[in-house]
Design a protein that fits this description.
Length: 107
């Protein structure tokens, strides 16, 4: 409700901090209709050293159905996305939102 109230965003998708949720919390969130996601490609984007290096780590770890973890507080995140999306498309990947992921509800 807070996201909808303050940011005017409504979602039922959740990535828990550090990818961990206590079982009781997970159960409550699922009962409330949330789909909890983890990630399958962790590239430690905050370590850099720059956008190109992070992009290479994403490309090297890419696999069908993969979910990439990126952080909004990293200076080069937008540059990483600008590099990675065209490269993944050239490699034949079909990029989709989490709401279309086959593992909806799976951590």
């Amino acid at each position: 409700d807070a996201l909808q109230t303050h940011l005017r965003v409504k979602t039922n998708l959740l990535r828990p901090p550090w990818g961990q949720t206590p079982p009781e919390t997970e159960q409550r969130l699922q009962q409330a209709g949330f789909h909890i996601f983890g990630w399958t490609i962790s590239v430690r984007d905050w370590e850099g050293p720059d956008a190109a290096a992070v992009a290479d780590r994403i490309i090297n770890g890419a696999h069908p159905g993969g979910i990439v973890a990126l952080h909004d507080h990293v200076d080069w995140t937008a540059d990483v996305v600008d590099i990675v999306i065209p490269r993944l498309l050239l490699l034949g990947y079909d990029l989709r939102g989490l709401d279309e992921h086959p593992a909806v509800g799976f951590i």
